[in-house]
Automatic annotation (TrEMBL):
It is found in: Endomembrane system. Residues 8-526 form the Clathrin/coatomer adaptor adaptin-like N-terminal domain. One of its GO terms (biological process) is vesicle-mediated transport. It comes from Dreissena polymorpha (Zebra mussel). This is AP complex subunit beta. Its main location: membrane. Keywords: Membrane, Protein transport, Transport. One of its GO terms (molecular function) is clathrin binding. GO terms for cellular component: endomembrane system; membrane coat.
C-alpha cells in the first residue's frame, strides 16, 4: 500500500466502492497530496474526475483533501470545473460552518474563470455569516481577491462591510479586518483611524490574542491625538501594556508612547523606566535573536535618548555584559551599548569587560571592543593614562588578530594622543618583524614613522622590508615609502640612502599608482628637499 503506482491510485479513486471505504479513500487521497508536493512535476489532471466527485463526500477529511487537490490542478481546462463550482456553491449553504469556510477558501483559491465569477457574491454573503469561524475565512478571502482583482476587493460594499466588522464580537474577526483593510487600502494610507475607533480598539485590546495585541498596538502608531488631554487618557489606559509579558507588545507600546509624547519630552524618562522590567527580562531570557533585535532597536531608534537609556540600565548594567557562548554579532551589539552606558560609578567594571573582549577569539568582536576603548580615551581624557596601558598590554597578546586590531585602532589616534603612548613604541619594531597581515604591517609602519624610536632599530626594520620588497602587498609598499620619508625628515643623514633605495624600488614597481607616488616624492625632493619636508612631514 505504501508504494502505490499512479495508475493504481487512479483506479482505486475511480472505483465505485471507494466512497464507502473511508480509510482507504483517505489513504489514496494522501498519496495524491504527496504527488502534489513532489519535487518532480506530476500531471494530476487524470485525478480530476474522481476528486470532483469526492468533494461532495460527507467525511470532512476527504472533502478537505479533495478541495486541496482541486486547487493544485486549477490551471487545467476541464468541463468538470462547472460541477466543482456547483458543489462548492452548494456547500456554501451547508449547515456546518467548517464546510462553508472550506468551500469559500477553495472557491477563492481557484484561478479558473469558472470559479472567479462566483467569488465576489460568495465573499460578500459570508461576511455576514452567523458563524465567527466563517466570517474569519471570508475576511481573509478578501485578500485573495485583492491579489487577483484589486478593483473588486476595493469595492465600496466590501470595504464598508470590513469597517463594520471591526466592531465584531469575535476578536480574531476584528484583527483580521484591520490587517486586510491595511493591505488593500495601502495606496490610500491604510485603515482610517478615528478617535472613536481608537477608543474602541483600546477597550477591546485585552480580548485580542498576543499577536492581535501586538498588531493593533503597532497600528495605533498611525493615530495622532488632537489634544494633550487625549494623549494622557491614552497613556493611562495603555500603561499596563508597557510591562506586558510579551516583549513585542511592550516594545510597540513604547514606540506608541514615544510618538504620543513627541512634544512632551519631560515624560520620556518615566516612559523608559516603566519599560525597565521588560528590557531586563529580554536581556536575561537567553534568546540571542530576541536580544539582538532589541539591541538593534535601541541603537538605531534611540541614539538621541542616551540619558534615558543610561537611567534605564543605571543599576543593572551587568545584564548587558557578554556571555562566553553568545554569538559574535550579539557580543558586538552589547559592547556598543556598554560604552554608551559608562559613567563614573560603573567605569571600572565596564572597562574590565571591554579589555576582556579585546582579546576575544572572534576578530570582529576584538576590533569592536578595542574601538570602544579608543572612544573612551577620547571621551574620558582624565583617565586616558589608564586606558592607554590597556593598549600596551594588548600589543603583547599571543593572538595575531588582537595585535593587528590594536595597531589598526592606534593609527586612528591623533599625533597628540600618540605622544602619550611612548611605552608602546618599544614594541613596534619587534611587532613589525613577526606580523604577516598586510593591514597590521601597514599600521605598524605608520606608527614607526610617528614615534621617536631608536634610529638603529627603525633602520633595521626598513632594511628588512626592502630585502623582501617584491613579496610585499602594494599597500605595504606604499606605507613603506611614506614611513621612509617620515624617518628621513627626522634624521636626513641616516635615512637618505634608505629613502633613495625605497623610491627606486617603488619607481620600478608594477603598480601605476605607486610608481606615480614615488616619482612625485623624487621630483619634490630633487627640486627642494627643505620644501619637501614641510609638505610631507
Amino acid at each position: 500500500m505504501e508504494n502505490l503506482s499512479i495508475d493504481y491510485i487512479l483506479r482505486e479513486l475511480s472505483s465505485m466502492k471507494i466512497a464507502t471505504d473511508v480509510p482507504r479513500c483517505r489513504h489514496c487521497l494522501s498519496k495524491v497530496l504527496q504527488l502534489c508536493s513532489s519535487i518532480v512535476a506530476q500531471d494530476l489532471s487524470p485525478f480530476l474526475p474522481p476528486v470532483v466527485n469526492l468533494m461532495a463526500h460527507s467525511d470532512l477529511l476527504i472533502k478537505k483533501s479533495a478541495c486541496l487537490i482541486l486547487t493544485k490542478v486549477s490551471e487545467c481546462k476541464s468541463e468538470l470545473f462547472l460541477l466543482a463550482v456547483n458543489t462548492l456553491l452548494k456547500d456554501i449553504e451547508d449547515s456546518n460552518p467548517t464546510v462553508r469556510a472550506l468551500s469559500l477558501h477553495t472557491l477563492c483559491a481557484m484561478k479558473h474563470a469558472t470559479f472567479v465569477e462566483h467569488r465576489y457574491s460568495s465573499v460578500v454573503k459570508l461576511l455576514s455569516d452567523p458563524s465567527a469561524y466563517v466570517r474569519r475565512a471570508a475576511v481573509m478571502s478578501v485578500v485573495t481577491m485583492y491579489h487577483d482583482e484589486k478593483s473588486v476587493s476595493k469595492d465600496a460594499v466590501v470595504v464598508n462591510r470590513l469597517y463594520e466588522l471591526v466592531r465584531d464580537d469575535d476578536p480574531l474577526v476584528v484583527v483580521n479586518c484591520l490587517t486586510v483593510l491595511e493591505e488593500i487600502l495601502e495606496s490610500e494610507g491604510g485603515v482610517v483611524l478615528s478617535r472613536k475607533m481608537v477608543g474602541y480598539l483600546v477597550k477591546r485590546l485585552e480580548s485580542f490574542t498576543t499577536w492581535g495585541k501586538a498588531y493593533v498596538m503597532k497600528l495605533l502608531q498611525k493615530y495622532k491625538p488632537k489634544s494633550e488631554e487625549e494623549i494622557l487618557d491614552l497613556m493611562n489606559v495603555l500603561d499596563p501594556f508597557l510591562d506586558n509579558n510579551c516583549a513585542t507588545i511592550s516594545l510597540y507600546t513604547l514606540q506608541f508612547f514615544l510618538l504620543l509624547i513627541k512634544d512632551l519630552p519631560d515624560f520620556k524618562d518615566d516612559v523608559f523606566l516603566r519599560c525597565q522590567k521588560m528590557f531586563l527580562g529580554v536581556f536575561t531570557c537567553g534568546n540571542s535573536e530576541l536580544i539582538s533585535c532589541f539591541l538593534d532597536y535601541l541603537q538605531k531608534e534611540h541614539k538621541p535618548d542616551k540619558n534615558a537609556i543610561q537611567k534605564l540600565f543605571a543599576d543593572h548594567y551587568k545584564v548587558v555584559f557578554c556571555k562566553q557562548k553568545e554569538p559574535g554579532y550579539l557580543k558586538i551589539q552589547k559592547l556598543k551599548l556598554l560604552v554608551e552606558l559608562i559613567e563614573e560609578e560603573n567605569f571600572t567594571a565596564i572597562l574590565e569587560e571591554l579589555i576582556l573582549y579585546s582579546s576575544d577569539r572572534d576578530p570582529q568582536v576584538s576590533i569592536c571592543s578595542i574601538g570602544c576603548l579608543k572612544r573612551l580615551v577620547l571621551e574620558w581624557p582624565g583617565v586616558s593614562t589608564q586606558l592607554l596601558k590597556a593598549f600596551h598590554k594588548l600589543l603583547r597578546s599571543e593572538r595575531n588578530h588582537v595585535v593587528s586590531n590594536t595597531l589598526q585602532v592606534l593609527v586612528t589616534f591623533s599625533p597628540e594622543t600618540l605622544k602619550n603612548l611612548s611605552e608602546v613604541s618599544t614594541q613596534l619594531c619587534l611587532i613589525a618583524q613577526k606580523m604577516s597581515d598586510a593591514e597590521a604591517v601597514v599600521a605598524v609602519l605608520y606608527l614607526i614613522g610617528q614615534f621617536e624610536l631608536d634610529n638603529a632599530d627603525s633602520l633595521d626594520v626598513i632594511e628588512e622590508f626592502i630585502n623582501k620588497f617584491s613579496e610585499l602587498d602594494v599597500k605595504v609598499k606604499t606605507q613603506l615609502l611614506m614611513t621612509s620619508f617620515a624617518l628621513f625628515c627626522k634624521q636626513p643623514a641616516m635615512f637618505q640612502p634608505i629613502l633613495a633605495e625605497v623610491i627606486d624600488l617603488c619607481m620600478h614597481d608594477d603598480d601605476c599608482d605607486l610608481v606615480y607616488q614615488a616619482k612625485c616624492y623624487f621630483s619634490v625632493l630633487h627640486t627642494d628637499a627643505q620644501t619637501a619636508m614641510k609638505i610631507f612631514c
